[in-house]
Amino acid sequence: MATTAAASPPFAYDSKIEGNIIFTRLDSAINWMRKNSLWPMPMGLACCAIELMATGASRFDISRFGAEVMRFSPRQSDVMIVAGTVTYKMALAVKRIWDQMPEPKWCIAMGACASSGGMYRSYAVLQGIDHLLPVDIYVSGCPPRPEALLEGLMRLQAKIEGEHSALAQFSLSAPTAEEAME
Ligand code: SF4
Predict the structure, then answer these.
(1) Beta pairing partners, 106
(2) What is the pLDDT of residues 15-46, one digit of tens each?
(3) Most informative mutation of 47, 50, 119 for ligand 1 (most atoms within 8 A of CB)
(4) What domains can be seen in the chain, in order of their start residue?
Protein backbone atom coordinates (compact mmCIF):
# COMPACT_ATOMS: atom_id res chain seq x y z
CA MET A 1 0.00 0.00 0.00
CA ALA A 2 1.45 3.34 -1.03
CA THR A 3 1.78 6.03 1.65
CA THR A 4 2.50 9.70 1.22
CA ALA A 5 5.32 11.42 3.08
CA ALA A 6 2.85 13.70 4.86
CA ALA A 7 1.00 10.72 6.34
CA SER A 8 4.16 9.00 7.61
CA PRO A 9 4.37 8.44 11.38
CA PRO A 10 7.47 9.66 13.24
CA PHE A 11 8.62 6.07 13.67
CA ALA A 12 8.03 3.19 11.29
CA TYR A 13 9.31 -0.20 10.29
CA ASP A 14 8.99 -1.56 6.79
CA SER A 15 9.95 -5.22 6.38
CA LYS A 16 10.45 -4.65 2.64
CA ILE A 17 13.49 -2.52 3.35
CA GLU A 18 14.97 -4.66 6.10
CA GLY A 19 18.64 -3.89 6.49
CA ASN A 20 18.25 -0.25 5.59
CA ILE A 21 18.58 2.56 8.10
CA ILE A 22 15.58 4.12 9.79
CA PHE A 23 15.89 7.63 11.21
CA THR A 24 13.73 8.78 14.06
CA ARG A 25 13.84 10.87 17.19
CA LEU A 26 15.00 9.22 20.43
CA ASP A 27 11.83 10.40 22.17
CA SER A 28 9.68 8.82 19.46
CA ALA A 29 11.49 5.49 19.70
CA ILE A 30 11.32 5.34 23.51
CA ASN A 31 7.69 6.44 23.60
CA TRP A 32 6.71 3.97 20.86
CA MET A 33 8.17 1.11 22.86
CA ARG A 34 6.64 2.27 26.12
CA LYS A 35 3.13 2.89 24.84
CA ASN A 36 2.89 -0.50 23.16
CA SER A 37 4.14 -2.55 26.12
CA LEU A 38 2.24 -1.22 29.12
CA TRP A 39 2.15 -3.73 31.97
CA PRO A 40 -0.91 -3.02 34.13
CA MET A 41 -1.14 -3.38 37.88
CA PRO A 42 -4.81 -4.46 38.20
CA MET A 43 -5.95 -2.67 41.35
CA GLY A 44 -9.39 -4.28 41.44
CA LEU A 45 -11.29 -3.05 44.49
CA ALA A 46 -14.97 -3.51 43.64
CA CYS A 47 -17.45 -4.16 40.80
CA CYS A 48 -15.43 -2.25 38.17
CA ALA A 49 -12.82 -4.97 38.47
CA ILE A 50 -15.22 -7.38 36.76
CA GLU A 51 -15.23 -5.11 33.71
CA LEU A 52 -11.44 -4.92 33.93
CA MET A 53 -11.31 -8.72 33.84
CA ALA A 54 -13.67 -8.73 30.85
CA THR A 55 -11.33 -6.31 29.07
CA GLY A 56 -8.56 -8.87 29.39
CA ALA A 57 -10.68 -11.75 28.10
CA SER A 58 -11.06 -12.87 24.51
CA ARG A 59 -14.09 -10.77 23.49
CA PHE A 60 -12.36 -7.44 24.07
CA ASP A 61 -8.76 -8.67 24.09
CA ILE A 62 -6.60 -5.99 25.67
CA SER A 63 -3.58 -7.73 24.17
CA ARG A 64 -4.40 -5.98 20.88
CA PHE A 65 -2.92 -2.92 22.59
CA GLY A 66 0.10 -4.69 24.05
CA ALA A 67 -1.25 -4.31 27.60
CA GLU A 68 -2.27 -7.86 28.45
CA VAL A 69 0.62 -8.58 30.81
CA MET A 70 -1.24 -7.96 34.07
CA ARG A 71 1.25 -8.07 36.90
CA PHE A 72 0.49 -8.53 40.57
CA SER A 73 3.92 -7.32 41.52
CA PRO A 74 4.35 -3.54 41.60
CA ARG A 75 8.01 -3.98 40.63
CA GLN A 76 6.92 -5.30 37.25
CA SER A 77 4.10 -2.87 36.49
CA ASP A 78 4.03 0.55 34.90
CA VAL A 79 0.32 1.45 34.72
CA MET A 80 -1.96 1.14 37.71
CA ILE A 81 -5.63 0.65 36.81
CA VAL A 82 -7.64 1.59 39.90
CA ALA A 83 -10.94 -0.23 39.36
CA GLY A 84 -13.43 0.17 42.17
CA THR A 85 -14.34 1.94 45.38
CA VAL A 86 -11.32 3.15 47.34
CA THR A 87 -12.18 2.88 51.00
CA TYR A 88 -9.94 4.55 53.55
CA LYS A 89 -9.11 1.07 54.78
CA MET A 90 -7.60 0.22 51.38
CA ALA A 91 -6.31 3.66 50.38
CA LEU A 92 -2.91 3.48 52.04
CA ALA A 93 -2.33 -0.03 50.67
CA VAL A 94 -3.02 1.34 47.16
CA LYS A 95 -0.59 4.20 47.81
CA ARG A 96 2.09 1.83 49.05
CA ILE A 97 1.79 -0.33 45.93
CA TRP A 98 1.92 2.81 43.75
CA ASP A 99 5.10 3.94 45.54
CA GLN A 100 6.67 0.53 44.89
CA MET A 101 6.12 0.78 41.12
CA PRO A 102 9.22 1.99 39.28
CA GLU A 103 9.27 5.13 37.13
CA PRO A 104 8.02 5.86 34.56
CA LYS A 105 4.51 4.96 35.66
CA TRP A 106 0.98 6.05 34.88
CA CYS A 107 -2.44 5.73 36.50
CA ILE A 108 -5.91 5.13 35.09
CA ALA A 109 -8.88 5.82 37.40
CA MET A 110 -11.52 3.42 36.12
CA GLY A 111 -15.11 4.30 36.93
CA ALA A 112 -16.97 6.80 39.05
CA CYS A 113 -15.77 5.44 42.40
CA ALA A 114 -12.06 5.57 41.60
CA SER A 115 -12.46 8.99 39.95
CA SER A 116 -14.60 10.75 42.54
CA GLY A 117 -15.97 8.36 45.15
CA GLY A 118 -19.00 7.77 42.93
CA MET A 119 -22.27 7.46 44.78
CA TYR A 120 -20.51 6.86 48.08
CA ARG A 121 -20.56 10.21 49.83
CA SER A 122 -19.48 8.35 52.92
CA TYR A 123 -17.06 8.78 55.81
CA ALA A 124 -15.52 5.45 54.77
CA VAL A 125 -14.74 6.21 51.11
CA LEU A 126 -11.95 8.28 49.57
CA GLN A 127 -13.49 10.82 47.19
CA GLY A 128 -11.21 10.00 44.28
CA ILE A 129 -7.86 8.24 44.06
CA ASP A 130 -6.33 11.51 42.84
CA HIS A 131 -6.28 12.60 46.48
CA LEU A 132 -3.43 10.12 46.91
CA LEU A 133 -1.63 9.75 43.59
CA PRO A 134 -1.44 11.48 40.18
CA VAL A 135 -4.07 10.23 37.74
CA ASP A 136 -3.37 10.43 34.01
CA ILE A 137 -6.69 9.21 32.63
CA TYR A 138 -10.19 9.16 34.11
CA VAL A 139 -12.69 6.67 32.66
CA SER A 140 -16.32 7.58 33.36
CA GLY A 141 -19.14 5.13 34.03
CA CYS A 142 -20.63 2.96 36.74
CA PRO A 143 -19.25 0.63 35.68
CA PRO A 144 -17.47 1.64 32.47
CA ARG A 145 -17.80 -0.93 29.73
CA PRO A 146 -14.61 -2.64 28.56
CA GLU A 147 -14.67 -0.49 25.40
CA ALA A 148 -14.47 2.61 27.63
CA LEU A 149 -11.41 1.26 29.41
CA LEU A 150 -9.82 0.47 26.07
CA GLU A 151 -10.46 4.03 24.93
CA GLY A 152 -8.85 5.24 28.15
CA LEU A 153 -5.87 3.04 27.37
CA MET A 154 -5.61 4.49 23.87
CA ARG A 155 -5.73 8.01 25.31
CA LEU A 156 -2.95 7.08 27.70
CA GLN A 157 -0.95 5.79 24.73
CA ALA A 158 -1.50 9.11 22.97
CA LYS A 159 -0.31 10.95 26.09
CA ILE A 160 2.83 8.83 26.35
CA GLU A 161 3.52 9.51 22.67
CA GLY A 162 3.98 13.20 23.46
CA GLU A 163 6.23 12.84 26.49
CA HIS A 164 9.85 14.05 26.59
CA SER A 165 11.17 10.63 27.62
CA ALA A 166 14.79 11.07 26.60
CA LEU A 167 15.01 14.46 28.30
CA ALA A 168 13.66 12.98 31.53
CA GLN A 169 15.88 9.90 31.27
CA PHE A 170 19.12 11.77 30.80
CA SER A 171 18.21 14.80 32.95
CA LEU A 172 18.52 17.19 30.03
CA SER A 173 16.73 20.50 30.18
CA ALA A 174 13.36 20.70 28.44
CA PRO A 175 13.22 22.77 25.23
CA THR A 176 11.91 26.30 25.40
CA ALA A 177 8.62 27.09 23.66
CA GLU A 178 10.57 28.65 20.74
CA GLU A 179 12.82 25.57 20.40
CA ALA A 180 9.84 23.26 20.51
CA MET A 181 8.25 25.20 17.61
CA GLU A 182 11.33 24.79 15.37
S1 SF4 B 1 -18.17 2.90 39.73
FE2 SF4 B 1 -20.01 1.63 39.97
S3 SF4 B 1 -19.40 -0.37 39.16
FE4 SF4 B 1 -17.52 0.77 39.57
S5 SF4 B 1 -16.89 0.19 41.64
FE6 SF4 B 1 -18.15 2.05 41.80
S7 SF4 B 1 -20.23 1.28 42.18
FE8 SF4 B 1 -19.04 -0.44 41.38
Answers:
(1) 79
(2) 666 666 777 888 888 999 999 999 999 999 99
(3) 47
(4) 33-164 (3.40.50.12280)
